[in-house]
Amino acid sequence: MLDLALLGSGGSMPMPDRFLSSLLIRYNGRKILIDCGEGTQVAMRILKWGFKSIDIICITHKHGDHILGLPGLLATIGNSGRTEPILIIGPNGIAKIIEGLILSLSYLPYDIKLMEVSNSSTRVNFFQEGVEIEEVYNNYSSNGDLIISTLELDHSAPCIGYSLYIPRSPKFNPEKATYYNIPKNLWKNLQRGETVTYEGNIIEPHMVLEGSRKGIKLSYITDTRPIRAIPDFIKESDLFICEGTYGDSEDIGKAIENKHMTFSEAAQLAYEGKVRELLLTHFSPAMEEPQGYIENAAKIFPNTIIGCDGYIKTLTYS
Amino acid sequence: MLDLALLGSGGSMPMPDRFLSSLLIRYNGRKILIDCGEGTQVAMRILKWGFKSIDIICITHKHGDHILGLPGLLATIGNSGRTEPILIIGPNGIAKIIEGLILSLSYLPYDIKLMEVSNSSTRVNFFQEGVEIEEVYNNYSSNGDLIISTLELDHSAPCIGYSLYIPRSPKFNPEKATYYNIPKNLWKNLQRGETVTYEGNIIEPHMVLEGSRKGIKLSYITDTRPIRAIPDFIKESDLFICEGTYGDSEDIGKAIENKHMTFSEAAQLAYEGKVRELLLTHFSPAMEEPQGYIENAAKIFPNTIIGCDGYIKTLTYS
Fold first, then answer.
1. β-strand pairing of A54-58 with A30-34
2. Which of A31, A50, A58, B304 has minimal Cβ neighbours within 10 Å of its Cβ?
3. Given this model, what pLDDT does residue B235 score?
4. Are B237 and B217 in contact (CB under 8 A)?
C-alpha cells in the first residue's frame, strides 16, 4: 500500500492559489518526494505528513519551478531532527545546480548523496539509517522495497521521468509448507522471501511460493513532449501522473515551442501505456480552471483526473 | 512620498499563514525590495505592484529566510519583460551565495550587478535605464534621488541593516525669484536644484532656495542583537522597521542564543533612536499571535505597530 499527495498542481511560477507541481509518496513509514519548487515546504506543512522521514528526493530537471524549494526544504528537514542521509536523484548536471543552491545553508545535521542518472533502474531498500541502493536491470524484480526507474525526456533542459514500482512477493502455498513439515512460525519469513533453517534443513522460499504477482506501479512524467519511449516506460501503471500544461488542444503550438504537452497528448500516452488511471498536473498559470478542459483528455482516456493542490490517493495491490 | 508594503512578517521558515519578512518600497515609479525569502514573489503577486520596475534588491544576510526567494523572483522579473540591470546589495560574502542560487536560471534578459558592503552610504539616481550609484560620506546630502546607508549588525552570519533617505530640496523663495526677474516657467527647474540660463544670465538654485529641509527616512533592521550603533543609524527615522522575533521578554535567553531581539529590545532602540514610529516584523513561527505581546514594546515606545503580511503605509515629507 502506498499513499501519495499531489502537493501542488502548477507549472512555471508559484501562484497565490496554486502551489508548484510536486508529489509526496508515503510507503511503509518512509517518504519520497518528487520535485520541489518554491513553496513545496509550505504545501507539506499544510499536508501535515511531517518532514523527518523523507529518504529520497527525485528531481526531474533544473528549472526553478521544480527545484527552487529544495534549499529551504532541506533546512526545514534539518530542523526536524533528521540525521540519516538523504538521497537526491536527478538528471545529468543536477549535482552542480544543487550544490549551488545549498551554498547558503550553513549546516545540515545529515549528509546529502547526489546521484545523476539518465535511463536507469535502481533497487532501493529502506533502513532505519537511510536507504541502500543498487542498480538493477529488471524493473519487475521481486527483490527490494522499491524500484525507481528513470527515463530521459524531451524538454528544454535535461529532464527525466520517474517510475516507482513496489514489488509484490509471490503467493504462499500452505499445502506445500505442510507437505515439508515447516512449522507455522516460520511461514511469515518464507512469505517475505527469506531462506530459513529448521532442524538442520535449509528451506528456500521457492519451495512454498508460486507464481509472480504484479506490484504497485506509479509513474510521473513532466516536463516533456510526448516521446515514443513513454508508453512502454509507464506501461500498466496503477497511476500515471503526467503534465498537462495546456488544456486547450489549440495550444499545441505553444506546447511544441515550450516542450510541454496538451491534455489530449497526455491522455494519448495514458491510452497507449494501458495505465489504470491518469492524473493531470503542472497547469499553466494562464489556465485558471483546468477542470473545464477535462473532456479533451477524457474522450481519449476516460479514467482521467484533473489534479489539484492537496489531492490524496492510496494505491493498493490489485 | 514613498509607499511601502511589508510583504511578509515571519522569520525562520515560510508558514501557510505567514510569508517571510520582506519589504517592498515604491518611490517615483521605481521599486526597491529588501530581503527575499521563499515565497516573496507570491506575496508580491498578491500585492499587485508589479515586478518589472524593481531596480534594487537589498539583502540583509545569507540565511534562507532572507534570500531563498531570490532566484525565483529574478526569473519572474525576467518574464515581466525587464531588460534594465538590477542592482543587488548585500553584506560581504553574499555575491558567491547569490551566484550559486542563480546557477539554475538558464537565461535572464537583464544584467545583475552585485555589490558587497559593510558600513556604507550610497547615493542612488534612478534613470529609465536603471540606477546610477556613487559612494557618499554624508547621509543627509541633498543630491540624488535616494541615499542607501548600511550598518554591520550582530548576527550568526554577516548581516547588515539598511536606512533609506529621500532628500528634500530646500524651500523655494518666490520673492527672490521675482527680484531676479526669473520667468515663472523656469521656477520649477530651480526648485528641483537645476541651474538655468535666461537671456544670457546663469541663474543658480541657491539664489532662490533657502534653508535645508528634512527628507524621508526609513530604516530596516533584522536579524541582530540590539547593538550600540543602531540608535544613531536609525536616528529620527520616520519609520523604523525592526525584527521582533520574540514577543515575550522571558525569551531573552533564546534571543541572545540565536542573535535576535525581543519586542522590548526593539522598542528600546526605537526610543533611543528618537524615531517617529516602530513597525515590528520577523516573528518566530512559534508566536502565533504577535499582537498579544504589543504591550511589551508599547510601554517603552508607545508608537509601535505589530506588522502583518500585506501591511501598507505611505511616508510623506513632514
1. parallel
2. A50
3. 98
4. yes
Q: A residues 137-176 near B, CB within 8 Å?
A: 156-157
CA nearest neighbour of A281 among A98, A24, A29: A24
- pTM score, whole prediction: 0.92
Strand-pair category, B2-8 with B22-27: antiparallel
Residue A111 is a catalytic residue? no
Minimal CA separation from A286 to chain B, in Å: 13
In this prediction the ipTM stands at 0.91
Q: How far is A71 from chain B (nearest CA, A)?
A: 7
What whole-number distance in Å separates Cα of residue A273 and Cα of residue A233?
A: 8
Q: In the prediction, which pLDDT does B138 show? A: 56
pLDDT digits (tens, 9 = 90+) for B76-107: 999 999 999 999 999 999 999 999 999 989 88
B106/A103 Cβ within 8 A? no
Query: Cβ A101–B101 below 8 Å, yes or no?
Result: yes
| Angstroms from A13 CA to nearest CA on chain B | 7
For chain A, positions 21-50, list CB contacts with chain B under 8 A: 38-39, 41-42, 45-46
Q: Which residue of A has its CA nearest to B65?
A: A72
Q: How many CB pairs under 8 A join A and B?
A: 97
Q: What three-state secondary structure class fits B210?
A: strand
